[in-house]
Amino acid sequence: MLQMTRAMPPIDAAPRHAARTALLAPLLAGLLAALPPAALGAPPAGPEVTTPAASAAPPAGEPPAAESSPDTRGLDQEIQGLKKDVVDLNKDLFILEEELLFPANTQVAVFLSVDVGQFFALDSVQLKLDRKEVINYLYTPRELDALLKGGVQRLYLGNLKVGAHELVAFFSGKGPNERAYKRGASLRFEKGVGAKYLELKIDDRQRKLQPEFEIKDWE
Amino acid sequence: MAVMALGCSLAVQAQSRYALIGQSAPDFALHAAVGGNARLSEHRGEVVVLSFWSSRCTPCRTQLAALNRSLATYHSAGLAMFGIGVDDDPAQAREFARSASVSFALLLDPAKGVSRSYQVDNLPMTVLIDRSGTVRNVLRDYSPESEQLYLQQLRALLNE
What we know:
By secondary structure, chain A is α+β, with helices and mostly antiparallel strands. Helices cover 31% and strands 34% of the residues of chain A. Chain A contains four helices and eight strands.
């Protein structure tokens, strides 16, 4: 099973995230409205009226205000619960959005992993699907660190119709002796009715002291 | 004093004309002539200063040196800084970048996609982005007065 990490989403994820946040705002407002007023720290509605004198001088034996921590703790727990609900809702919305935009019967996802990387320092990857450029991704030192620590990046997510297709990937970077290095790899694959997962693997070939670029088709 | 006040008022007028103030800073990823490649979105949570420069711009070198001094002072407070070169010729920009001897990444934008998205109409131009990724201030020139204003604005953003 392929490990899917969302550590480095492509730039176009930002507007979608904003749209999700916009959707979440009224939901959060609804949740807050549904809470009992006491949980939000509001005075209870009702005919009870306290005089300033009565509220200023608590009767003997009643704990001082500083000791009313169970109420505060309860409120804090309620807020934490609400925050968790919002995070869960955000996750569900993200999954729903992906299922709607990239249904399983047309979905194609391309992942990238780097193993060792002694003979190649990745700078950028260009992806072409059926001779059409779909992404040109530039890597920063932080992203390379994450990849070298075993991270797997989802480089591309899109839709393809059922049938034969070709994926071409161009890898640019620095090869042995800090020299500019550019290599390509291609794969012809058959897209069935299910989702298609492909992985670009950059590996070191120790015997040849060269990097190796491979595209794997995850059935 | 009057000159400084005039400089400040001109800077405020210049800022009011900059359409990106209050907007989310356009994200970018650029190759570096000096330092590592950079992606703006990686620096969310830090105050980011973008300085647009060109090898043919004389005050740009002085301004980059001034920015470098401010980075040395405020780096530990969460300041990130990038110089973005708008030269057509990357070789010329690299040569300038190597000679500038600054401690922040000098990036190359020969296609001018980033400078277009930031509506660069003057060099040097400095854009200040707050910790939430919103464009807050812009300086469209370099002078001792504008440097003072830059430091004031920078301190205010770092204190937020």
